[in-house]
Design brief:
Blueprint: H1 7-29, E1 47-51, H2 56-70, E2 80-86, H3 90-106, E3 110-114, E4 133-143, H4 156-172, E5 182-185, H5 189-203, E6 216-220, H6 231-236, E7 242-245, E8 257-259
Parallel strand pairs: 1-2, 1-5, 2-4, 3-4, 5-6, 6-7, 7-8
Helix pairs in contact: 4-5
Amino acid sequence: MAPHLSFPIALVYIIILLIPLLTLRLLAILPPNRPPPAKRKRGTPTRLLIVLGSGGHTAEMLAMLRNAEASGLRWKDYTHRTWVVSSGDSVSADRAKGFETEVAANCSGSRVKDHALGISLMDSPEKPRAGEDVVGSYDIAILPRARRIHQSLLTTPISALYCLYHCFRILSSLPASQYPDLILANGPATATILILASLILRFFDIRGASKRGTMRTVYVESWARVNRLSLSGKLLVRVVDRFLVQWPGLEGVGGRGEFLGVLV
């Protein structure tokens, strides 16, 4: 008779078998093994998700977007934009609204649909009226903070998990075919949690999350980081699709850092 394996020993064997399979799966969805995005048909709706921190992070992000627009970024190519802000950060929410209003004013005869604060991301842009060019639509999603200022390290994992849960709610509330095409972040802890949520969705291919072109991530290290990375940067340098730094001393950091000049 074959020897009877106890449950603990059988569990150990299963874990040993699963580890290489899970490792291979993780490597398959991370750069540089992740395949390039598929070609898109002209006019295909495109979703952009922008993570705002508070204070300096928000100021840097908006400055980068203004510079990108001045350099030829077509804002209307992103037919729906989601601005992610932390709970209690009404200043960043107002600045996001102001930026959208500014963009609409710069596009003659255009308008932007403004959704209410919340996490309802499923609305489509309004149909244009005769002779009008719609810049697109946007909404503002509010996340609980991953870690509050002066919060104890003992309770931080609990608040981080709560934030992760709400990140899943934001990303999973979208129709399966409308995950964000691009996630843009520049440092806040909330960005790290949200990118982790997108990674988990892609790892398990939930509703086609790992398909080519879905949830591409671009992380821009803060201008204030001259010689070494922030904690968020250290955690994300090998995970995001592109990792941009703003000082030549950080070029090539982690084997990923791209220096394209000062972006703010």
